Amino acid sequence: MDWDSDDQALSPFEQRDQEEQAEAWYNHPLRVQNRLLLEENLRLKKLLRENGISWDPRLVLDPNDPTRTRGTWTSRKRTRTRSSRGSQSQQEGKRSLPTLPMEIQLYILEYAMTSKYPIIDPLCKLNKENLTVAEKTRPNQIAIGFLATCKAFYMEGTRFLWSNNTFVFTNHHALRNFSNLDLSHRQGIKHVIFRIIARYYDDEERPHLAPYPSAEYAHEKMISLKVIPRIREQNLTRKGFRSYTWDQVIDFLDALRPPFDPNHPKGQPRPRLLPNLECLRIDFVNFPENYLSPPGGPTLHNLASHDLGCTLNELQLTGLPDCAWGLEMSAQLSKMIKDDGLLLKADSTYVFSGGRLRLMSERSRWNPTWYPKVVRAWKVLAEEYMRAKKKSGSTPSSVRLHRHGHDVHVQMPPAPKEEGHPKSIWRERRTLFKRVPVRQDSDERVWCEFDRLSGEPIDAEEYDSDLDEYDVDILVCLHCGIMHSPYSDD
Fold first, then answer.
1. Where is this region: Disordered (predicted)?
2. Contact 217, 223 (CB under 8 A)
3. Could you tell me the pLDDT band of residue 2, with boundaries at 50, 70 and 90?
4. Which ranges in 228-322 belong to alpha helices (H)?
5. Strands 167-169 vs 119-120: parallel, antiparallel or unpaired
6. pLDDT at residue 489 above 60?
7. How far is CA 403 from the centre of its chain?
8. C-alpha span between 37 and 168 (Å, rounded)
9. What angle is formed at CA 277 by the lines to CA 408 and CA 194, rounded to 5 degrees?
10. How many Å is the Cα radius of gyration of the chain?
11. Closest residue by Cα to residue 118 from 95, 141, 102
12. Residue-level pLDDT at 490
């Protein structure tokens, strides 16, 4: 299928939509809350005026004033009201009801605040376009009313809510609003899911057909992209077919940076939005290779490699196109993974077609297999090589001055080792074990052995004595005597 002629006419340019940005600013939760409080305050004042009651105890309204807005101030001091009597004296003589032990109450509370499914866009209004049919019709999964019972249930229930559930974010505004949550609750979150749905805009009515965003259907089926209509303005604003794809990824990553906290002690680094995040899954939806431009350049690199670099133990990517831009995005995002961390890539989980979000598992030829790779597993071998060179006294003086890549930065700790793995059949070849999920739609994990030089998985049934060797000299740079990655994207 030839797409060259269509690509020249329909290839979009990457740009954030100003109308959506303005709407998001207006609908910010704090501004919405302030507007609601202001409207409620005005309604209460109007109700008091209509009934001749002052909203301030120091002001006595003039009954002869038809507008009910004039009166006399009686005192500059506020009137003190008598505190209400304790509930114990009011309950005397009433029969006491049986109560459950506190441990049983906490068990019930924990069960009530734990959802069977991930919670989508917490602390934010849901956009139903970003939900599947099953998610739209799903009943409430948590009994949020428990939090209004008493202060003790509110404190314990809030802790259960944020520590026992998994969260899905479908837009970066919902992720930014997460900064309103107390740091003590954000510290316990170790796994989140980003559902990034590509958005397209156009100020002309024309068809926008794209290959199916799945390797199994890419050359057989097409989908009609959902394009948001925009008004063609008579000014110098860029017009035509626009997309919000890679910039959306940048906005998600930018939301993970440290939020502002006025109570944070000065002189100490501010923690990230999710300081203990270990596993991040990103589901890319409707990212066809023919409609993509180059990724975000230095901004994406600064976020993934520096601000969020070496912070994850595992990164899961689904729906990335198998093209140059998709591979570059994967390489950039892998910088967020710690040394010896796990990178998992798979086919699309969702597709937006027919006006709604659909699960790819509903298709007959969906491939749920994960393709794993261990990131920068060769670093351990490089450190061993340098220690051996120092002990032998053969380290050249130029090694201390010659630097490659990010060696000048602080050395970050690697991903923790996983215990209980089987014994390797390789004697000389350097390997490591990781627990890898079997399918996208399953939590089951199995042990998988990886080669430290390539980071690729090794099948135990493919054992070959000729490959059971480890030659470090072929990886040592002839210019500086330091071992480097055998792959440019590692």
1. 1-22, 58-95
2. no
3. very low
4. 246-255, 297-301
5. parallel
6. no
7. 33
8. 29
9. 110
10. 30
11. 141
12. 61
Return left, alpha or beta for 287; rule: phi > 0 is left, psi -120 to 50 is alpha, else beta: beta
How far from 196 is each of 109, 209, 289, 431, CA to CA, in Å?
33, 20, 15, 34
- How far apart are the C-alpha atoms of 235 and 439, rounded to whole Å? 51
Report the pLDDT averaged over residues 321-349: 92
The alpha helices in 51-150, defined as continuous H runs, are 87-90, 102-112, 133-136
- Sequence length of the chain is 490
Contacts of 181 (CB under 8 A, 6+ apart): 123, 162
In this structure, the number of other CB atoms found within 10 A of the CB of residue 70 comes to 11
- Do 211 and 288 meet the contact criterion of CB atoms below 8 Å apart? yes
CA distance 71 to 447: 80
C-alpha dihedral (177, 181, 186, 188), degrees to nearest 10: -130
Q: Would you say 285 and 351 are in contact if contact means Cβ atoms under 8 Å apart?
A: yes
168: confidence class by pLDDT, cuts 50, 70, 90:
very high
Does residue 75 come out as left (phi exceeding 0), alpha (psi in the -120 to 50 range) or beta? beta
pLDDT tens digits, one per residue of 215-235: 666 556 788 888 888 888 877
DSSP 363: S
Evaluate whether 308 touches 256 at the Cβ level (below 8 Å).
yes
CA 449 to each of CA 164, 369, 419: distance values in angstroms, whole numbers, following the listed order: 31, 17, 13
- Are 371 and 448 in contact by the 8 Å Cβ rule? The answer is no
Residue found under tokens 């500059």: 76
Query: pLDDT tier at 82 (50, 70, 90 boundaries)?
Result: very low
**Residue 478: its pLDDT value, please?**
73
Q: How far apart are CA 337 and CA 413, in angstroms?
A: 11
Q: Which residues pair with 315 in a beta bridge?
A: 280, 343
Give dist(CA 263, CA 282) in Å, integer: 32
In this model, does residue 477 exceed pLDDT 80?
A: no
CA–CA separation, 72 vs 402, rounded Å? 82
Burial category of 488 from C-beta neighbours within 10 Å (exposed 0-12, middle 13-18, buried 19 and up): exposed
Q: How far apart are CA 211 and CA 218, in angstroms?
A: 5
**Which residue type occupies 176?**
R
Closest CA to 326 of 198, 207, 232, 228: 198
Helix (H) or strand (E) holding 193: strand 191-197
Half-sphere exposure of 346 (CA within 13 A, CB side): 23
Q: What angle do CA 247, 252, 253 make, to 5 degrees?
A: 95
